[in-house]
């Protein structure tokens, strides 16, 4: 199997998967409101989704180590199609919430995709492969909300049905074109928590997992309050905030899809990780004090570039610390830590923004990002076990 063609196939599959996910995001609060939910209850849709990813990411990853990447990825795509169909058919808020919980369990498959990359790339090409997957995610998030917004003009349920159809077509196509990568399969039958404890005890893994959590915590604090800051401090309309997030997504795609591979080959993952974290810390600290819209956009650019550098480097480092037969499980623990950050971050960000200061989620996030960079400096080069 050609590594480049395998990555290209995986890129398309992940992109279509995330395109459908992005289609339902912009209209989900309106849909919940239409079904009688208050603003306070709509927060459960995102928190519950992330909670299910927190639980299921290591499970999906370990299962893929045992039975193979292809069957688990196909199964998760089929579950995603069912979840989106449930979303479109929802006639009450509890059913809508159930659909999002099910979707969270299904889309915890990112650990499988990243393990697939680890299977088909050489260590020195690992960050490039992880960046390609990150670019697929970013592109899906850029285009998905725009398509969902157009479809929602006809019906708030239509983005869900369209996403279900897209996922079903994606699964059918993947059935025929997605290969099973050649990789050592795990024969480990230990209880999940015992296996997780042992993996976390391996050199370097705990530090990288900690960085995963801290970076997502800080970034999600920003995400949850950015629209408020842009509107209240810089006078941007809600539609213009959407354009800014698209701008962030485009920068992420450019960095992860085009620059990470060359930079990682030249400098290695650790320098990329630290540089990306420092850029994000500086950007977060400056966002509330940018002066005007041009300054806001200028401060947002290093945030996107830093994230584009750090995330593939993190995934690559974690993969290289893991044993070959534990790639899915170890990467799943990383995704679980990220999901935990997405559970806590929005609540911490909105609370401190409203109760203390609109600058606090950004200055606090910058401090968290700086701590993550300090931890990153202490990470030793990984020696991959084959």
Topology:
Elements: H1 3-24, H2 28-34, H3 39-67, H4 69-89, H5 93-106, H6 110-120, H7 126-151, H8 158-177, H9 192-200, H10 205-232, H11 238-267, H12 269-286, H13 293-321, H14 327-355, H15 360-377
Helix pairs in contact: 1-6, 1-7, 1-8, 3-4, 3-5, 3-6, 3-14, 4-5, 4-8, 6-7, 6-14, 7-11, 7-13, 10-13, 10-14, 10-15, 11-12, 11-13, 12-13, 12-15
What would you note in describing this structure?
The chain contains 15 helices and no strands. Helix 1 runs parallel beside helix 7 (126-151), helix 1 packs antiparallel against helix 8 and helix 6 packs antiparallel against helix 7. It is 81% helix and 0% strand. The longest helix is centred in the middle third of the chain and has 30 residues, at 238-267. The chain has helices at 3-24, 28-34, 39-67, 69-89, 93-106, 110-120, 126-151, 158-177, 192-200, 205-232, 238-267, 269-286, 293-321, 327-355, 360-377. With 386 residues, it is mostly helical. The mean pLDDT is 82. The chain has one domain (3-176, 193-377): Growth Hormone, Chain: A, CATH 1.20.1250.
Summarize the structure.
The chain is an all-alpha fold and 386 residues long.
Helix/strand/pairing category: mainly alpha
The SSE string, one letter per element, is HHHHHHHHHHHHHHH
Oligomer: single chain
Gross geometry: globular
**Poorly predicted runs:** none
Stated plainly, the CATH topology is called Growth Hormone, Chain: A
Please, what is the average pLDDT?
82
What is the name of the CATH architecture? Up-down Bundle
Question: Count of DSSP E strands?
Answer: 0
The CATH fourth-level homologous superfamily: MFS general substrate transporter like domains
CA-to-CA gap between the ends? 19 Å
Radius of gyration: 20 Å
Number of H/I helices: 15
Q: Biggest β-sheet, characterized?
A: none
Estimate nothing, just give the exact number of structural domains. Answer: 1
Helix content: over 70%
Name of the top-level CATH class: Mainly Alpha
β-strand amount: under 5%
């Amino acid at each position: 199997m050609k590594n480049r063609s395998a990555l290209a196939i995986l890129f398309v599959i992940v992109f279509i998967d995330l395109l459908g996910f992005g289609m339902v995001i912009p209209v989900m609060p309106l849909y919940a409101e239409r079904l009688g939910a208050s603003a306070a209850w709509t927060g459960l849709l995102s928190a519950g989704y992330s909670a299910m990813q927190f639980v299921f990411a290591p499970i999906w990853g370990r299962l893929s180590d045992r039975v193979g990447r292809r069957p688990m990825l196909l199964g998760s795509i089929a579950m995603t199609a069912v979840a989106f169909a449930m979303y479109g058919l929802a006639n009450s808020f509890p059913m809508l919430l159930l659909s999002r919980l099910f979707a969270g369990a299904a889309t915890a498959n990112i650990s499988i995709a990243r393990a697939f990359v680890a299977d088909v790339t050489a260590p020195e090409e690992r960050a490039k492969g992880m960046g390609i997957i990150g670019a697929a995610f970013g592109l899906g998030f850029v285009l998905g909300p725009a398509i969902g917004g157009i479809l929602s003009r006809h019906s708030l349920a239509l983005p869900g049905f369209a996403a279900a159809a897209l996922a079903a077509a994606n699964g059918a196509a993947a059935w025929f074109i997605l290969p099973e990568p050649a990789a050592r399969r795990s024969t480990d039958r230990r209880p999940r928590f015992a296996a997780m404890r042992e993996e976390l005890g391996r050199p370097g893994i705990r530090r990288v997992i900690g960085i995963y959590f801290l970076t997502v915590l800080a970034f999600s604090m920003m995400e949850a309050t950015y629209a408020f800051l842009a509107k209240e401090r810089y006078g941007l309309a809600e539609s213009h905030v959407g354009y800014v997030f698209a701008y962030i997504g485009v920068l992420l795609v450019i960095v992860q899809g085009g620059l990470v591979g060359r930079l990682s080959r030249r400098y290695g993952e650790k320098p990329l990780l630290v540089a990306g974290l420092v850029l994000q810390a500086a950007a977060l600290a400056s966002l509330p004090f940018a002066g005007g819209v041009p300054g806001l956009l200028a401060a947002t650019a290093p945030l996107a570039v830093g994230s584009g550098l750090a995330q593939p480097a993190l995934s690559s480092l974690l993969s290289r610390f893991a044993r070959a037969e534990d790639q899915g499980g170890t990467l799943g623990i990383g995704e679980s830590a990220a999901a935990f950050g997405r559970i806590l971050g929005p609540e911490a960000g909105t609370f401190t923004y409203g109760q203390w200061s609109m600058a606090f989620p950004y200055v606090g996030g910058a401090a968290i990002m700086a701590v993550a960079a300090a931890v990153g400096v202490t990470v030793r080069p990984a020696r991959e076990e084959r």
